[in-house]
Write a structure and sequence with these properties.
The protein is an alpha+beta fold. Helix content is 45%, strand content 10%. The protein has 2 domains: 1-100 and 348-407, Uridine Diphospho-n-acetylenolpyruvylglucosamine Reductase, domain 2 (2-Layer Sandwich), CATH 3.30.43; 125-344 and 408-485, Cytochrome P450 (Cytochrome p450). It is built from 19 helices and 12 strands. Bound molecules: protoporphyrin IX containing FE.
Length: 490
């Protein structure tokens, strides 16, 4: 297993950046960055420009081959990186915990369950992406509308007027149920929710600070993470085999993956199917959970927008969940979702690994330099978004930024394959919830973001749910670091 330390022999980028901290050196900078990635990156961009070295030392943050970390901002650089995906690679979802080369028996399930789209590059990526596309076709995604609406309705049926709930936990449960149902169909059966909970525990464990000590020793999180990976692997294989035995004719995504064929008739192997399933499952729910939770928070802080949105929804839908056709006729809902993912993007900084010696913004990026591309800071460009820190959904009636200026789902050949799925899921869930309830923050609330690839409200999001569409009369002011990212009423 790799550690945070790397070899000092390979060349490092010449981009400017902060000097190592006294005593702690580069590790000190990594710790400062890990504590507040968006705030720290913002200070670095202001001081050193849009291509800046985060750590001037051979240190591996995400990839086992990583050698120094560069932060990048701005549409121009964004386009350059995202369109040249043979030069700027992705790596496996578990980052430095993915066993490259020889894997021990305990690491084999990590490799199998996590070898999906994130791990492949160049022609291999193109081949796999082609094979996955049928599972994400519009007609197939549209077919999930009924499941999304039914599961969202089941959720709000359990809400009671005036109670304070952790809506982040609610949104996690909802998106996990939707992911399990649409990915596996009926075949996950009784085991579906357990599998979903394991996936959530797997993600939470992986991003915990205890994983700094990546040793398979009793009581260490790394051991628990390996155990969880082995269980996920076992259960996914069982569902896959059950589905194959029955002929895999369902409308679920896994059936589509089993049926997918290359031009020469080759399909995905069992190991590849398990890997893609694991990665789609992992990538496909936490992001949507966070988009939903952040949107509810923003609406609680903007009662005027919440009221207009409730009017739009009840006027067009009369209490029903939207059909696929309805979704195109709800402009404010569209603006709210876009604006929420602009000011609080579920993936605020996303990674790349330089695959061959390159140059960006006049600086050298030697092979194996790690990059974090800031979606958050790009979305704060005042030339594209006037008054960028304001949550202003109606701006979307006037603006049409390019996919390199606004891209919560990234852009280019690696753009999120689940973008249409996620957008539909988020809109159906919001339309269902907001026709039945409005949401308010309890007095004295503090909200801060926790960024670990995705951005979630640290410690959950406790909100009061009040029966009836519309809004609280006034926004209850929240404190916390969320105020550094978006302007909220004071
Ligand atoms: C609001 C929800 C979501 C957001 C904000 C989001 C965002 C992203 C981002 C930023 C990437 C990285 C693209 C890159 O490397 O350039 C990505 C990739 C990916 N996403 Fe999503 N995502 C969301 C929902 C989903 C859903 C629902 C699924 C599946 C059902 C999904 C599956 C994937 C996969 C498989 C990739 C890898 C694509 C590739 O490398 O070709 N995502 N997503």
């Amino acid at each position: 297993m790799t550690s945070l330390q790397g070899s000092a022999s390979a060349p490092l980028t010449d981009a400017p950046g902060p000097a190592p901290m006294p005593l702690l050196g580069a590790a000190g900078t990594v710790i400062r960055y890990a504590t507040d990635p968006i705030g720290f990156a913002g200070r670095i961009f202001r001081e050193y420009g849009d291509v800046a070295m985060l750590v001037r030392a051979p240190i591996r943050v995400m990839s086992p081959n990583g050698h120094g970390v560069v932060l990048v901002n701005g549409a121009k650089h964004n386009r350059e990186i995202l369109t040249q995906h043979d030069r700027y690679h992705m790596y496996a979802l578990p980052g430095r915990f993915y066993p490259e080369g020889e894997a021990s028996p305990r690491e084999v399930p990590v490799r199998r369950t996590m070898t999906g789209l994130f791990h492949v590059n160049d022609d291999e990526h193109r081949r796999h992406r082609r094979l996955l596309m049928p599972a994400f076709q519009k007609t197939r995604i549209d077919g999930y509308r009924d499941d999304m609406a039914a599961l969202s309705t089941e959720l709000v049926d359990r809400w009671r007027d005036g109670e304070v709930r952790d809506v982040h936990a609610d949104m996690t449960e909802l998106t996990l149920r939707i992911a399990t149902k649409t990915l596996f169909g009926e075949d996950a059966g009784e085991d579906g929710l357990r599998l979903a909970q394991r996936m959530q525990a797997w993600l939470v464990t992986m991003f915990g600070i205890g994983m700094m000590i990546a040793r398979d020793w009793p009581l260490l999180p790394y051991r628990r993470w390996l155990d969880l990976t082995a269980a996920l692997d076992r259960e996914t294989v069982a569902i896959l085999r059950r589905k194959r035995d029955k002929g895999a004719t369902g409308t679920d995504m896994l059936s589509a993956l089993i049926a997918a064929r290359d031009d020469d008739g080759t399909g995905l192997t069992e190991d590849e199917l398990v890997g893609h399933t694991g990665v789609v499952f992992a990538a496909g729910h936490e992001t949507s959970t966070n988009a939903l939770a952040w949107t509810l928070l923003l609406l609680s802080q903007h009662p005027d927008v919440a009221r207009d949105l409730a009017d739009e929804l009840t006027g067009a839908l009369h209490g029903e969940a939207p059909t696929v056709d309805d979704l195109a006729k709800l402009p404010l809902l569209d603006g709210v979702v876009k604006e929420s993912m602009r000011v609080l993007p579920p993936v605020p900084l996303h990674p790349r690994l330089v695959a061959k010696d390159s140059e960006l913004g006049g600086y050298k990026l030697p092979k194996n330099t790690e990059i974090f591309l800031s979606i958050y800071h790009m979305h704060m460009d005042p030339d594209v978004f006037a008054d960028p820190r304001a949550f202003s959904p109606r701006r979307w009636e006037r603006i049409k930024p390019s996919t390199f200026e606004y891209n919560p789902f990234s852009a280019g050949p690696r753009m999120c394959i689940g973008a249409a799925f996620a957008t539909m899921e988020i809109k159906i869930a919001l339309a269902t919830i907001l026709q039945r309830f409005s949401v308010e923050m309890p007095e004295g609330s503090r909200v801060s973001p926790r960024v670990a690839i995705t951005m979630a409200p640290a410690g959950g999001l406790r909100m009061r749910v009040v029966r009836g569409p519309g809004a609280a009369r006034r926004a209850v002011q929240v404190r916390g670091r969320i105020r550094d990212l978006v302007r909220l009423p004071s």
